[in-house]
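Hey all, sorry for the wall of text incoming. These are the two entities for the joint prediction.
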Amino acid sequence: MGLWQFIARRLALAVLVVALVSVATFTLTHAVPGDPLAVVIGERQANNPEVRAAFEKRWGLDQPLPMQYVTYLRNLLHGDFGESISKRRPISGELAQRIPATAELTLYAMSFAIIVGVPLGLISALNHDRWPDHIARFIALVGASVPVFWLGLLLLYVFFYQLKWLPGPGRLDVGMKAPPTITGMITFDALVQGQWDVFWAALRRLVLPSIALGSIALGIIARMLRSSLLAALGEDYVRTARAKGLAERRVVVGHALRNAMIPTITVVGLATASLLAGAVLTETIFSWPGLGSFAVSAALKLDYPALLGVTLVVAVVYVTINLLVDIVYGILDPRIRTS
Amino acid sequence: MGDPRANRLLRPLASRLDRRRLLQTAAALGAAGVAAPLLQNRTALAARQADATTLVVVDNVRDNWISLDPARFYEVNSSQAMAVIYEGLYYIPDGDKPTEFAPLLATELPTFSDDGLEATIAIRSGVKFQNTGNEMTADDWVFSWNRLANLKDNPSFYVTEYITSVEAVDPHTLKITLPFVNAALVPILSALSMGVTDSKAIVAAGGSDGEPPASGDPARDFMLNNSAGTGPFRLTQLDLEGEVIVERHPDYWGEAPKLERIIWRNIADPNSQTQAVEVGEADIAYSVDPDAVSQIEGDANLQVLRGPSFNIGYLALHTQPDPGGPLAKQEIRQAIASAIDYDAILQDLAAGAAVRSAAPVPLGLQGAEEVLPDAWTLDLEKAQQLFDESGVGPTEITLTYGADKGSASGVPLESLVAKIQSDLQKIQGLTVNLEPMDEATRLQSYREGKIQFTYSVWSADYSDVHTYADPFGRTGGAAAKRVGYSNPKVDELLKQGISELDPAKRTPLYIDIQKLMIDDAPFLVIDQPVEQKPARANVQGAQVHPIYMIALRNASKTE
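and here's what came out:
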């Protein structure tokens, strides 16, 4: 099978998965007992049929369920996710604001995880079973096992509250206006438009949440790199390289690390997707206006349209990342394409 | 590897910089990179505090604010902003005296026709709307209230239930026709949703005061992002995830506010809100963990703003055999009322951050203080006696609560219901099961009258006893219906109470109503929070208020 054919098949499968997710989420959210309007209509008007009818009409809840799904799909094809019940705002607008916020946070968290995690894994493997290894492994273990919400609160307590070194929750300083939207990622937009103060403020506010969120991936990356590098260092080709009389640095960087990076890169891909789960907690603690906090409030308030919107976005992200990983594998290892 | 030219250029450099030097430079750069923001953050905090023109309030804006359109607004926390953007005919100048009203955009109290069914109100002249500079006239009031009714959103009942029609007699006189004689008219007209909006601005944005088209109100987005009121501040930014900002209205008719702007900044967690005030990033925090209060009080840079709240948390006991079961018997309800250790809940669990009224009318409203001596108190012997006399024998009841509802007066709901369960099980023969339920489902079932025993909350629609006595006491009232409560004597007294225009004669009627309801025991008030808000010591004139939550009209900051 050619590469393009392979990609086309994967793409078709991906679209099918997203479609199935939309049906499943729609059915599940509507099958859950409970009335989303109960938390929206105030106590006073709860039993007023006129008000209830007006609210039902507003979200199409007066239509039969299959009809609601058809309407939903039709609107979706026009890029309209509907109106959030709990926020009374168009979901497309909410998502447009939140996706870049989460993307920006994830990007910085992942950068932190890689910049710290890779050297940590290297130090560990090269000093196998000596004290630098123990220290590095301890850091990796802590990173991977400390709950994100606890670490987040701790970081805030120490660096924002006690030391006053870094700013607290939020994306920007008090009263600061976000730069005109290009990507929605504030540090990028500010940089491109030369708003240095905004860039600097946004960057500083990214430090603590990125460390909190990145710590999970950091642990995974460091441990993965350590074990695969250790395995590679024991391989025949490394012995050959050493036998050729190559400098140790060239043996490690040029031969062992290159091979050890392949499983690590896979893990980086998967960890990025899994950060979305950590983002739910991080965003709540740092009042970060991202997808995670949106998903939480939508779920708590049984906000069907919002839940559907956020599930679809997350599904698309997962499917895309998996698709990319599949394609990269297909390129790296042609055997996969035929299997 | 790499560009050979670059290598040629770099080689001499590399030879001079050995690895150690390189590492040292990197470490120094890194340290500088870390140190710079540290210094900068402290300077920024100091500058923020020195700025006496901007007041910053931190609140869980994201979860608790929705719309600042008077025709849509029905949230509690955002009242702080509504009260400085929009203005009604009357207002409550002092939060500690919540039943004393003063004219705001009216020039005096209403005059009533002989039958009490027509109220005539003179309104101010020379009042300009924010942004447009349009002059406010009686037509704006007619438009605003008709729009409120026709949008059929949460606050529409202020008009549909209490006002038959409104007309502009002349540009500065309103005539309101009432469906019944209403002693609570002034409190109702003071409600934040009854504020006047700029009819011309809303029409220009596509809106109207008639039935909205099937596609929804065309002015909705305009009213989400702009303000169209007469208040001392106008809305300039509504980002519920970031900040809501209001700025001084330059043509304000009354005394100019001392602040240039007020910013409500979104921080969800109460502890982080308090921290933001402690480090000086914000001036007032909306919420606080009661345990943190004593520490704040010990800090010379901080103060705690305190004041009454009209929210009540209460137990609802279904009075009909289905689904009330044993609770349908008055003796059992009274036994339960006598078995709860209310003081332990208020003092130990809520750390003094709550008080308790005797009937479902919060302290501060008419008659609530007077009936305090009649309140149920812990008396296990009496509880056991009432239980035994009921002849029900060993029985089980189920207490339902919102699992995701969070806390009541700072007490986690799980702890509160566990305490109530253990108190009630001291009655021999009574078993209490706890049933957590997600809040949306619980509310729905409760509203449908399907829950035997539950903990719920209620807040004020306007500052008068009737906003509690009527829904809780009247047969078929919004809350009474949920527990199947009906007492014809209460119904009769409520009719007299709402139509009695003389306050001296009116309060005794509501005292009788509350006494009857205490004895019937369909609702047991557990907590009425005392609002506590951490603030910087240099904040002045901000008042915790039972209707506006934080009254900021007269707020200022010293440098």
